[in-house]
Amino acid sequence: xxxxxxxxxLLAPMALAQEPPEPIEHTEVAPGIFMLHTIGGVGLLVxxxxxxxxxxxxxxxxxxxxxxxxxxxxxxxxxVINTHVHADHVGxxxxxxxxxxxxxxxxxxxxxxxxxxxxxxxxGALPVITFSDNVTFHINGQEAFVFHIPSAxxxxxxxxxxREANVIAPGDLVFRGIFPYIDLDxxxxxxxxxxxxxxxxxxxxxxxxFISGHGPLGTRAELQQDLAMLKDxxxxxxxxxxxGMDAEQIVAANPLAKYHDDYNWRxxxxxxxxxxxxxxxxxx
Length: 284
Known about the structure:
This protein is α/β, with parallel strands linked by helices. Helices cover 35% and strands 20% of the residues. A hairpin with a 4-residue loop joins strand 3 and strand 4.
């Protein structure tokens, strides 16, 4: 879990250490559906029947996330759906559970959290409802279809399609406009990530809005742009692997240089993206 801790540190804004913490802003994506702009993108469905949150945040931001959600909804959150296992998306599970929420996630998320002291911080931290393939919520006049995307960002990824609203919350299958983090140590791989993005694009249209795991609200055209980058980046690295170059030589060749200005960021730098592609393409 050292990598998760590093991710949380690098993604956390400086304001996290300040008192009081930086207020959480929000965007109304569709009537009753919000994107909360915190360390990772958090979704919120508000209605007369239930309040549903998609992911939460780091443990340190739990109280702020609860406060923001309750301010928008007028009452506590009923369900939290985790999209994957990383601390910046499940870290506030216990706080939400203590406020009355039930935690829902893919089977693999609970399995990975069970023996991890940094994430299994108490009885409320673990998902209490799990699924293997998909589950559908029929609430607030919405059909929220929650479905597993295997071996992509991790091995426990889930995305949520709000059919009537034409909104998708795919967690970290969307790093809008920046290099994606593909967690090879927790079941992710580049081919699966590409397949997952293709699935999201295929089920969307030009009016679909995506609540990004990291980055601003996304559109179908923007996801197509990010997917094209990732496919091209993988092919550029594969060409050098096929030439027999080793990892050090490939990194030195800087095959992703043309994407550096637009996609490089402090956690997934151009060099780290290159190394991820090398490892995913060469490991059996």
